[in-house]
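FORM 7B - TANDEM STRUCTURE REPORT

SECTION 1: FIRST PROTEIN
SEQUENCE AND TOKENS:
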Amino acid sequence: MSAPIRLGTRRSALAQAQSGQVAAALEAVIGRPVDLVPITSEGDTNRASLSEIGGQGIFATRLREALTAGECDFLVHSLKDLPTAQPDGLVIAATPKREDARDVAITRGGTPLHELRAGSTVGTGAPRRIAQVRRRAPQARVVDIRGNVDSRLERVASGELDAIILAAAGLSRLGSNSPLRREELGLTEWPTAPGQGALAVETTADAPLELLAALGRLDDEDTRIAVTAERAILAGLEAGCQAPMAAHAVVTGDSIRIRTVVYQPDGDRRIGLDVTHPLNRGYIRRNGSGNGADAADGADPMHEIRDIGMSAAHRLLEQGAADLLPRE
């Protein structure tokens, strides 16, 4: 039997759950076993606030070092945690079909976020979510928290916190069956981070063609188009992945709709954009999915999509978004 393919993953329960799902899908495609290789990142050991230590790449750097050192054959990341600049020699080989991109508010009794009593405590460490909570529930007090999903849920169950904000995708991938109550926060009024709910499958540009081709079969075209546009907005704003901004794109047929918002950190001000653009599906399909196995002439099938995202970022900047954002 062929040697197992090694998948590098963070050690957290969520990271191992989502990596396990990708491993199972790849095994079905390539007919070889896939072994998880747990790797400890700085984000797993440094318990300081992400806003203090800089969330940009904190979960990815050690994994990428392991990949380039040959400790594993490919990686699975939560796409929203990845810096927008792709390192030389590495490629995003696939973006599997996206899970639910929404945030959810978790409470003990099911009180909607905007109805929490004055002085209620809401736990989250993300600047974007902090700004959104301050807009939705200005009477509440935001508490900066870190930790895995179970430890966060326990802080609500014990009464230490009245609510927390989590990603719906993470709860789904963990199969969480907590008795706590969930309030789904709609993407129209509560857009989420670029790439939220999506995974990035990354490997080296010189990986064996068999592996690149197999990983490419896990790619979902609509997901890749949507997240490419979202991350291009983030790159165009020159803001890190911990910036108080949101971008969510939806692909329908031959068009893409993008909603994006930049928030003042205290939530008092926001600048938003809602635009729809046509897509050249034929060009994208003729030139590959952008997964490291592109056309021989070097065509970039996602060039048009990145331009759409960059254009949206430019329009936000024209409206004054730079005044609200920390610079990278």
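SECTION 2: SECOND PROTEIN
SEQUENCE AND TOKENS:
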Amino acid sequence: MVERLSGILCKKREMRSDPLNLFLRPGNDRVTVYDGARLSSDDYIRIFQYCPTVKDLRLRDAVQFKNKVMDHFLSTKITLEKLNLHGANLIDDERWNRFFKEKGENLKAFKLHYTDGHFGDEQLALLPKTCPNLTRLKIVHNQKVTDEGLEHIAKISSLVHLTINIYGQTSSPPYVEIINGVGPALRTLCIDKANIDDSVLEAIHENCQNIQKLRLTDNEFMTDRGFANLFSNWYNPPLTYIDFHKCRHIDSNDPRDNTDGIGFSSLGFEALMAHSGKTLKHVDINSCRHISLETFERVFAVDKKYLDLTFMNISFCQAVNDFVVGCIFRSCPNIKQLVVFGNFGVRSKILTGIPTAMGMQTEGTEDGEGRIAG
């Protein structure tokens, strides 16, 4: 309940110095601030002063969590087990080095989002040496890490969950090395916006046998055949979560021209559903526009049932129409959210996001006079 109240305040950007005091109690082992944009460096220092027993620290939009705060934290005896920082881009590399050397031994989960020009290869090189218990690593929207830094992740033998989103130019070989090194133990693997090819899919197929969640997004190099091969005769148990959004061919002249079979398309979709359809709960194939109508009809045929599927995003899949939507509802009786946006073949009034005038009115319920109530 306390955490939910924190989320409500943060949603309205009302988490300031005075309200923060209400959420800091001696003995707390977890502190979560969903939006700390209005907090000062002294406010973040106060977290460590009021909650010396904190083990799990999650801070979003923590702009003022900078060197001054890190210096104070390093001077305490607090040993964090989980650190999730978003937007703390004013911590220099020297402080990060000290953090891992002095506090890394007990660290089990480390998530870092939006650090701009700080935190790079030098810091990743420290992780295998200083964080022997690290099971979860997430580096998102990082501009400094290169191929050389990624290679160090392959040496973190304790990893179970891994998310990488590097905005610089990276290539396939370091990702293959990572999967060769830590793939057998991984249960979660997410690689976003990387210029990786089918060699990474092959490495996943050969090394990963415990994956439950797989996210590979924003890619224009992996092929449909590569995705199909991944799910064919794969020893990994059926997945529960898939996100392949924007894995598609990009051609400014004619996006329909895809002679090389780039992206997650018909072959890959059929192979995925044959392998994991019975257990999938979440499927996001937004903008995978080369999946054919015939494929959708076969996957969601009368005799096919996917009882666990509760969320599906098929936005901007060109073949989707009202018939496909009806087949999905029939094959997925427990689905709670079906996202259809940018599909001109869909005109059903029960959906939102379809590019027709009537469709754009369907968010909410009709009142007694036929008007839409939000």
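SECTION 3: OBSERVATIONS ON SECOND PROTEIN
Residues 356-374 have pLDDT under 50 and may be disordered.
The CA atoms of residues 186 and 269 lie 23 Å apart.

SECTION 4: SIGNATURE
Preparer initials: ____
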